[in-house]
Write a structure and sequence with these properties.
- It contains 41 helices and no strands.
- By secondary structure, the protein is mainly α.
- The radius of gyration is 35 Å and the shape is elongated.
- The model has no long low-confidence stretch (mean pLDDT 83).
């Protein structure tokens, strides 16, 4: 097939999907027929003919007798969508992607299917149960692991589960005699597959796993269901989508916890504690951690105790505490295989055999029971150790394990170490999400997968999507704050705006109102200033003495031209005795906008008096206003009080303008020439252009009446002749 045909088939498929959304079923059928022809797929022609025939006769019946039922029309639409899905799959099969390669592989092996591979898996599992070597030699598990990975690959790239396959998968996922590691791996495959095709049978399987009581599998299913229902909200059949949220509610899944952990995974990452563990672990070696007297003899500094405290707090909040150390250990062939990004940690895995032989087995078992390390990180950690000499490997792993135990010496951690099934749901949720986010961040081919396009705050935390989950106002506020803390300000702002739109400003506390208003002010969208004004006004209604809020509101008024409102807000908020320079500077801006320069200058003097010695904000503005008010000597004198590096903030050439108006024209000219030659000032013509602008702006102020001002207007031409010369000579 030529690339041109493939490109045209994609375009025709996109057209068909658009036509389906517009209920143009006849046109969609024609577009799909053309797409199938471009792919040289004759097998679809008959199916499209059958669908079109049924649709045609249904329309003829409607036109002559009575309207068709919504069910009949929905059935036609579903059949057209099925053909579209097949064509889409055929197009993907031509791509140089992991998904396309898997489809091509399956087509080359038509004798193999999910059922046959599961049969082989069950046979191998039965053989291992009777093989004594399987208990002591992890390498004997290699064939079973390969079959488990084959099942994963078949599941994540499947098109549609038929009823027989659904029943088979339902049975083996619920079968506790089958390794929970493998069953959870397959749950992850099913979750990943939903980004390609929202198969209702797959959703039912995840719901079954969610309800079966095995917590790790239930949490893995829950996380995938939450992500899918959020990402594709409004793009699935309503009954299916509603059933997802209902099943999550029945299972008691804390949606707020899931969303909070997703936000943490989207952030820039918390502090990494790996090096802290390694350094502190040496001090705990050989000690009985339950012996209080022994612990008293450890020489720990205040900083060491802070490290331990921060580590425990980060772990308790679900932070990814090893993301930048263990999380980067992804250079092993183990991680070249897609299934291995999602496999639960198994200390008996065959690829760990070099490490777990002998005393290494105990270390691997200890790491397995550490609840706050994600499974893929555990594999990465042990695989990293496999490259060490055996003696160094044993010492290093023992030291690391001791350190982790020491820094995690909390009642919750000890309980988890004694019985892994007692790990709280929040930890399981955190680890499942870290697994997914680590995969998205580190897997080399993830960019070709749909999940990478949806894993962002703007998609996952769009209010119209979250609304269907049923989370309340308090959850919206908490998620908004978490998003803001992680730097996702646009997503955070949208959530708060959604609350205000639904419930008004009274629904938010002062802190949330201020955060929303601050972000709306920064966003500068068409209706942002109105929302910010409402929020600041509500805060001031509750707390009239909030001078900081009065300043923010006055700036909103200034931007919208409500200058007198801005001044009144500041004056009415007790600005006079506040001792704060920022409100006074803002009030001076109001007076300036009202062209009351005398009052503005007086107010700036007050601000400068109460400002710290190293704050020259008021002086910079005074230099401008003195000049505008026709007081060039005062302007020049004020500029002299400002350090040279800070003067550069002033409008271009302002100091020279003040000197010119003081009668020092030669000094002004030399100053401008010096500034032109100063590194960082840019091109000389740009400087002269900016100088003209500064001079022109003075024309609206009292200084324009100065007899020296007309000469100032042509001063930039003096610089041009000075720099470029003329046929008459230089100036």
């Amino acid at each position: 097939m030529t690339n041109d045909n493939l490109h045209q088939a994609r375009q025709l498929l996109d057209r068909a999907l658009s036509e389906l959304r517009q209920y143009k079923y006849a046109e969609a059928i024609q577009s799909l027929r053309s797409a199938a022809a471009k792919l040289a797929d004759d097998t679809l022609s008959g199916r499209l003919d059958d669908i079109e025939s049924r649709y045609f006769y249904m329309l003829r019946y409607i036109s002559s007798y009575a309207p068709a039922s919504s069910g009949d029309i929905a059935d036609i639409a579903a059949k057209i969508k099925d053909i579209a899905a097949i064509i889409r799959r055929n197009i993907i099969a031509c791509d140089n992607t992991a998904y396309g390669a898997q489809i091509r592989f399956e087509r080359l092996r038509p004798e193999e299917n999910i059922q046959s591979i599961i049969s082989d898996y069950l046979s191998e599992a039965a053989r291992l149960r009777t093989d004594p070597s399987a208990l002591t030699d992890p390498r004997s598990h290699a064939t079973l692991e390969r079959l488990s990975a084959d099942i994963f690959n078949r599941l994540w790239a499947h098109y549609r589960l038929d009823d027989d396959t659904y029943t088979l998968l339902e049975d083996i996922i619920a079968d506790t005699s089958i390794s929970e590691v493998d069953r959870e791996l397959w749950i992850n495959a099913l979750g990943l597959s939903l980004f390609y095709y929202r198969d209702s049978n797959v959703i039912r399987l995840l719901q079954k796993a969610l309800a079966n009581g095995e917590r790790r599998m239930a949490i893995a299913s829950a996380v995938w269901l939450v992500i899918i229902a959020t990402v594709f909200s409004g793009r699935m059949d309503d009954p299916v989508e509603k059933s997802i949220w209902e099943s999550l509610t029945i299972a008691g899944i804390d949606l707020y916890e899931v969303y909070s952990q997703i936000i943490r995974s989207l952030g820039n990452g918390s502090k990494d504690f790996f090096n802290d563990l390694a350094s502190l672990s040496q001090r705990f070696r050989g000690l009985d951690l339950n012996n209080a007297e022994a612990l008293k003899n450890i020489d720990l500094s205040t900083d060491d105790y802070d490290k331990i405290r921060r580590f425990n707090e980060a772990q308790a909040s679900g932070a990814d505490v090893f993301g930048r150390s263990i999380g980067n250990m992804r250079y092993f062939p183990f991680f070249a295989s897609l299934p291995n990004w999602f496999i639960p940690f198994d200390p008996q895995h065959s690829l760990l055999a070099d490490i777990t032989d002998g005393e290494g087995a105990e270390i691997a078992e200890s790491i397995a029971m550490m609840p706050h390390i994600a499974d893929s990180d555990k594999y990465a950690l042990l695989l990293a150790m496999s490259n060490m000499p055996s003696a160094m490997r044993s010492t290093t792993l023992s030291t690391l394990v001791d350190g982790m135990r020491s820094m995690s010496d909390t009642p919750e951690f000890r309980e988890a170490m004694s019985e892994i099934r007692n790990i709280p749901d929040s930890t399981l949720i955190s680890n499942q999400i870290i697994q997914i986010s680590r995969f998205i961040a580190k897997y080399p081919k993830v960019g070709e997968m749909p999940i990478s396009r949806y894993w962002n705050a703007d998609t996952l935390f769009e209010p119209s999507r979250l609304d269907r989950s049923g989370i309340g106002t308090d959850a919206y506020i908490g998620l908004s704050k978490a998003l803001g803390d992680q730097g996702n300000l646009s997503a955070s702002c949208r959530l708060l705006r959604h609350i205000v739109a639904a419930d008004g400003t009274s629904a938010l506390a002062d802190a949330e109102l201020e955060m929303l208003a601050d972000m709306e002010t920064a966003a500068q969208q068409p209706d942002s200033s109105d929302i910010a004004e409402d929020c600041y006004t509500e805060i001031l209604r509750r707390e009239p003495g909030r001078l900081d809020i009065a300043v923010k509101l006055s700036r909103i008024y200034l931007q919208s031209g409500k200058v007198q409102h801005a001044a009144d807000i500041l004056i009415g908020s007790g600005i006079e005795g506040s001792g704060e320079p920022a409100p006074l500077i803002c009030l001076a801006q109001c007076y300036e906008a009202l062209h009351d320069l005398e009052q503005a200058i007086e107010t700036l003097h007050q601000a400068d008096f109460v400002a710290p010695d190293d704050d020259f904000t008021a002086k910079l503005k005074l230099a401008e206003l003195y000049l505008r008010n026709g007081q060039p000597h005062e302007s020049a004198g004020t500029i002299d009080l400002i350090p040279a590096d800070i003067r550069r903030i002033l409008p271009t050439g302002l100091h020279g303008i003040a000197l010119w108006l003081c009668g020092n024209t030669a000094e002004a000219k030399n100053m401008w020439l010096d500034e032109i030659s100063t590194p960082g000032k840019g091109d000389s013509l740009d400087y002269i252009k900016d100088l003209r602008h500064t001079i022109a702006e003075l024309g609206d102020w009292p200084v324009a009446a100065d007899k020296a001002y007309p000469g100032l207007r042509v001063a930039p031409d003096i610089l041009l002749y000075r720099l470029n010369g003329s046929k008459f000579g230089n100036i």
